[in-house]
Amino acid sequence: MKQEDFDELAPVKTGQSVGEGNAKADSRFELKPPSNIPMEQDKPPFTLIKAYLNLQQQQALFNESANYPFTRPEVLLYGKSHPIPRNQVWFADQGCDYRYSGLLVQALAWPKYASKLRQKLARDFGLNSNGVLVNRYADGHESMGWHSDDEPEIEPASDIASLTLGATRDFFIRHKQSQQKICLQLQSGDLLIMHWPMQKDWEHSLPKRLKEKDVRINYTYRRLIVGFHLPEVAK
Ligand SMILES: O=C(O)CCC(=O)C(=O)O
Ligand SMILES: [Fe+2]
User: Fold this and answer.
1) Comparing 12 with 196, which gets the higher pLDDT?
2) What is the CATH number of domain 40-222?
């Protein structure tokens, strides 16, 4: 595969996407229920682009991921330490260390194709990310629980773009108040853009699928506040 292959692709127009998450109802025909009756929540604000990367691009990224220095961090839950059920690595610009669940994850330098995908996202959607968290699920026993990507160092009101490679997995989105839930099937090459305020109003998860034998790699491109430092916790 030539190095330029990633750059030469025509930009994808957002209008070509199959996502419905942004569809706005025509307000002229909107019937408002009386305020004492619970109203169905809006759809979560996402755009899903099927087959955003072609097979060659998927293969280039997938091959590259075989050399990533993945680790399996431990997180503290109710005072006890547990390994997370997947492997992770964080690539980012300088000054973009990432802290979640009490862990400080230091930024590693961008690999070639992860960086090319970042540039493509910037070109196609104006997505101004400065870091990518790569998750590796060895098989369907590995998962991610319910959460929002709402850590304080994430740039307020920014979008997060999530690219899937390898195994097809269910991805759930659940409204924080109403508990309304939707399920997307994410396939290799698909791109899910989670728009603000999805991280404020909704949670998401990747449940176990025990019959799944294949590996899945997920890239979530984020924008952190550069040089963000949490106040030191007193010892
Ligand atoms: O693997 C996925 O699709 C979800 C990843 C995710 O939610 C995250 O990294 O915050
Ligand atoms: Fe997430």
Assistant:
1) 196
2) 2.60.120.590
pTM over 0.90: no
Beta-carbon contacts of 229 under 8 Å, excluding residues fewer than 6 positions away, are none
| pLDDT beyond 50 at 206 | yes
149 lines ligand 1 (CB under 6 A): yes
* Cα 228 to ligand 1 centre (Å): 22
Phi-psi region of 63 (alpha: psi -120 to 50; beta: other; left: phi over 0): alpha
Per-residue pLDDT at 21: 42
137 annotated ligand binder: yes
Q: What mean pLDDT is predicted for residues 140-169?
A: 96
Is 150 marked as a binding-site residue?
A: yes
SS3 115: helix
- Give the residue among 156, 142, 120 at the shortest CA–CA distance from 7: 120
b/e map 131-167, b = 16+ CB within 10 Å: bbbbbbbeebebbbeeebbebebbbeebbbbbbbbbb
Calculate the CA 29 to chain-centre distance: 34
Distance CA 141, CA 207 (A): 9
Domain boundaries, the chain: 40-222
Tell me how crowded residue 44 is: count the other CB atoms within 10 A of its CB. Answer: 22
The stretch 185-204 carries a mean pLDDT of 97
What's the half-sphere exposure (Cβ side, CA atoms, 13 Å) at 90?
21
| Residue 161 beta carbon below 6 angstroms from any ligand 1 atom | no
